[in-house]
């Protein structure tokens, strides 16, 4: 077995999920993630954890969901009980076809999602971590060769997380102490209040309230957004490719929008509900192991020298105890990314903290 | 998809497991059983059943079990809760290497089995059914080409089960009314009491208390066994090939034994505990869709014109209500098969019911 797969497994089990003896672990394995599953199972065995392995097959899921009438039972007790009694859920993505769900009617997928809210909440109450095993399908989605894509994934995943967490702590401190963030670049001049919010140092570990491997971003929940912003990183929303989105905010709400490709997809998102026109997240990508966009939000939004904003649902982890109810609520959370590596700056309370892809504490920073 | 796979899925879901709307179904998928899993998921969707899919990977299991210290937690609650709340468990066998467990230390495998007795019982309390998807590894084990092996499996599985159940009902009636079975062939003259026992018509359906697809046997729990028996069908016991076993019984117990190959494997079985020297099962194979031995007990013991005897644990389904405690108890249940197609006869209370592979109710029977 490729030694990088073993390292990936150790990182997931130790750094990310902090598995200990006796932990009840659910391991969910996508069709193409078999090898990583074997490595993870070995690490779980070494730690004397317990193991239940699920088959996260998109072909099984497609066949089942399409054939179903669409009247899904609410939170079947046997599945909810599994998660309610579990300590950790490790999800290994990595399918054999990233568009396997393309012919599942949207209304059935949505109905299934609604019916399973209790199960989802039970799963989110565990120490859950999502990661991906590099597959040929993901390489194709990224427009890369398989070998090149493997390198890409392991560069992103196999980092010195302790060191990155320390660096991100500096960013978190600036955000926690600040009250206003401003982003300036081409077609962009946006200000957001972050008063009364707590930033999350998303260091790819449940110990940091971070549930993705790789991660490497600091995020908070902005409000009172004003101005315009241009997202130059392409993305896929509900299976539609969207390019060059431009949003205009007044009083915290999107009042105007445009996109060069599939503008309708943006319209659909913004029309979902009231919260869909407000920001739920401001994230600052700081993982420089991710050096290119691969059309996968798990990687793209963590890329060093990018900033992403999400319209829709905010994370309660950004709200100090007692104020969680203030989080922006919505059925959607759609991330959009802008490149901050050139001709750009981010300010906190009027002070530049990042210019042209260099942070204030780094060599070569030009305030 | 091969239409036979769809028929297999329909037979499993309808005839065998009797799945209805709202049933909570656990589907366990071996590494090589993906295609059958997709077909079964579709059938479950059509019936609006609920679905949790487990990955029954022998490589994952091997890696985990080998790495574990061997001190397994007893019946982890999350897994037990899954089965306790489930209505049915469908296990799709069909690995990619039938000897994947070869380097898992026996003591760890046994310790794991002992620690999971409550989980096993919870699973057996559901409407569970085991079947196999034909894989290249199973074809190899059977000494057959892949295409030939697929034919073999579907011939065994895709039967007119209603018709076979009717024929087996005749055999069950003879056994239920009779009190002594005698088997006579080369090196074999064995009598067993079946007084006070109820035969099971194992027609591959939970409606018949039968949990294997394919099935096609009628079995009971004999006692007071006397005489000698020769098993001419090769078998594998604890990964060891065993040939031509000869057992001698007195007062219901094995008092002498011999085998032409790996006699030690038989000795080990018989020495397990007190119940291991007594019979737990007499089974009469009646599935003529199975026309050859393939070194897989799921198929071999159901083959038409064979009889199998198991030393060890008896099934409670053979004991009328209130007398279940009388069932022979043992940690083992090892089946051994003898060919009844030539120069042989089976008698019930002195009357011949099968001679040279022909039953009393069939054309060509020579009483």
UniProtKB/TrEMBL annotation, chains A, B:
Gene Ontology MF, one: metal ion binding
Disordered, as annotated region: 94-117
Pfam family, one: Peptidase_M29
Coiled coil: none
Entries under SUPFAM superfamilies matching the protein: Thermophilic metalloprotease-like
Keywords associated with the record: Aminopeptidase, Hydrolase, Metal-binding, Metalloprotease, Protease
Cofactor requirements of the protein: Co(2+); Zn(2+); Mg(2+)
Gene3D superfamilies: Thermophilic metalloprotease (M29)
InterPro entries: M29_Exopeptidase, M29_N-terminal, Peptidase_M29
GO terms under biological process: proteolysis
Similarity remark: Belongs to the peptidase M29 family.
Protein name, entry field: Aminopeptidase
Organism: Halolamina salina
């Amino acid at each position: 077995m490729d030694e990088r797969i073993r390292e990936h497994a150790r990182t997931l089990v130790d750094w990310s999920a902090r598995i200990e003896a006796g932990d009840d672990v659910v391991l969910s394995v996508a069709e193409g993630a078999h090898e990583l599953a074997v490595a993870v199972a070995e690490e779980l065995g070494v730690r004397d954890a317990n193991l239940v392995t699920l088959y996260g097959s998109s072909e099984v899921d497609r066949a089942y969901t399409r054939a179903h009438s669409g009247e899904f039972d609410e939170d079947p007790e046997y599945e909810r009980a599994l998660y309610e009694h579990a300590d950790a859920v490790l999800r290994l993505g990595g399918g054999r076809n990233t568009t396997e769900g393309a012919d599942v009617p949207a209304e059935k997928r949505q109905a299934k999602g609604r019916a399973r809210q209790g199960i989802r909440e039970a799963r989110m109450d565990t120490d859950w971590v999502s990661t991906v095993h590099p597959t040929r399908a993901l390489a194709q989605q990224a427009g890369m060769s398989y070998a090149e894509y493997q390198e890409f994934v392991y560069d992103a995943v196999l980092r010195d997380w302790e060191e990155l967490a320390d660096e991100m702590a500096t960013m978190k401190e600036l955000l926690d102490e600040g009250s206003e963030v401003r982003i300036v670049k081409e077609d962009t001049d946006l200000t957001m209040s972050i008063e009364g919010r707590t930033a999350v140092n998303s260091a790819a570990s449940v110990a940091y309230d971070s549930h993705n491997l790789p991660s490497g971003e600091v995020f908070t929940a902005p409000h009172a957004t004003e101005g315009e912003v241009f997202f130059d990183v392409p993305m896929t929303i509900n299976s539609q490719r969207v390019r060059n989105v431009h949003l205009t905010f007044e009083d915290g709400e999107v009042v105007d929008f445009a996109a060069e490709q599939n503008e309708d997809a943006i319209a659909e998102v913004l029309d979902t509900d009231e919260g869909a026109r407000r920001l739920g997240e401001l994230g600052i990508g700081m993982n420089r192991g991710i050096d290119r966009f691969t059309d996968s939000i798990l990687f793209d939004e963590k890329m060093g020298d990018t900033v992403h904003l999400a319209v829709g649902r905010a994370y309660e982890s950004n709200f100090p105890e007692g104020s969680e109810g203030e989080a922006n609520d919505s059925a959607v959370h759609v991330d959009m990314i802008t490149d901050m590596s050139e001709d750009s700056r981010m300010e906190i309370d009027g002070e530049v903290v990042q210019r042209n892809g260099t942070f204030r504490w780094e060599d070569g920073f030009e305030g």
